[in-house]
Input
Amino acid sequence: MAEYIKVIDVSKCTGCRGCQLACKQWNQMPARQTKNNGTYQNPPDLQWNTWTLIRFQEVADKDGLKWLFRKDGCMHCTDAACVKVCPSGALYHTEYGTVGLNQDKCIGCKECIAACPFDIPRWNRATDRIYKCDLCLSRIQADLNPACVKACPTGALTFGEKKAMTKAAYKRAEELGGNATVYGDKFVDGTHVLYVLPEKVDVYEKLPKKPSVPASIMSRRPSSSGRTS
Ligand code: SF4
Ligand code: SF4
Ligand code: SF4
Output
């Protein structure tokens, strides 16, 4: 089976949050009351019912103030710390190289929260289970694009076969020039979500510079036996 990845071209994102909404809708995640906290960042962080979040950031440079919008969510690591530590097999590698989650198997131990280098899984007290993006596995299996990709009106989100998409991401970074770079293919054996970042990596808040699997779990093997659930 071919590996698939999603590319997030940050330079094309307008911060419309269509992807955030489409993700909630497709996955039937309930809305929750929000409050005006004086910033555009709402909700303030990923949460059990928000698997993808547009992070709003205001930065100053020689041209003045400007906005950066970054879609945050599971990176679908090849060397996935969450899969390595999950004792129940709830987290697993799919046939597409992405990381799936079988919630019926989750025992709420929260090991994956501690292990994830990107701070992604979220726990719901009411269900005692973990939640995160599964890259719309059921849609991929039906030959459909992930819901966020389908909803994006600007072409900032694209999805396809790994090799071609990685090549396209590098071509785009080259077109953008300056500090533009590709983020994701050089650590944790490569992620199945790549960013094209127009600015240097360290400009983006909550984006680890050199994410890695914690040393204490480096040698662990995934508890699930196969690549699929
Ligand atoms: S980003 Fe975190 S939750 Fe997602 S696959 Fe990697 S380790 Fe697992
Ligand atoms: S791939 Fe699916 S689950 Fe993941 S962020 Fe996009 S819409 Fe949500
Ligand atoms: S739908 Fe596209 S343009 Fe809108 S916030 Fe999401 S990634 Fe950005």
Summary: The chain has a mean pLDDT of 93. The longest helix spans residues 162-176.
